[in-house]
Amino acid sequence: MAHVTYRIVEHDGGWAYQAEGTYSETFASHDAAKAAAVRAAREQKVPDENTAIEYETSDGRWIAETADGHDRPVTDVEG
User: Fold this and answer.
1) What value does the mean pLDDT of the chain take?
2) Which domain range does residue 38 map to?
3) Residue-wise pLDDT tens digits, 47-70
4) N or C: which end of the chain has fewer CB within 10 A?
5) In the chain, which ranges are E strands?
């Protein structure tokens, strides 16, 4: 099972959360960024329907597979 950590960080003159190298939008306060990270972490754990997905690998190959909507990551928020 995957694990995703949302980290609260200073970013672009304010605060943001960062997960797997990607930043959220900038928030005016640490508390606002943390509240948004907690919401995002909760939403990511909600099960969904199975669905067909396609994605490109780093070497340019396209992969088609079925994503299990119940295989959700473990999430947490730090900061």
Assistant:
1) 94
2) 3-78
3) 889 999 999 999 999 999 998 888
4) N
5) 3-11, 14-19, 22-23, 51-56, 62-67, 74-78
* Number of domains the chain is built from: 1
| Cα 38 to Cα 32: distance, rounded to the nearest angstrom | 10
Q: Residue 77 and residue 37: Cα distance in Å, rounded?
A: 7
Strand-pairing partners, residue 55, are: 63
Residue 37: half-sphere exposure toward Cβ, Cα within 13 Å: 28
Mean pLDDT over 34-53 rounds to 93
Helix boundaries (H) for 1-79: 30-44
Dihedral of CA atoms 13, 15, 16, 22 in degrees, nearest 10, equals 40
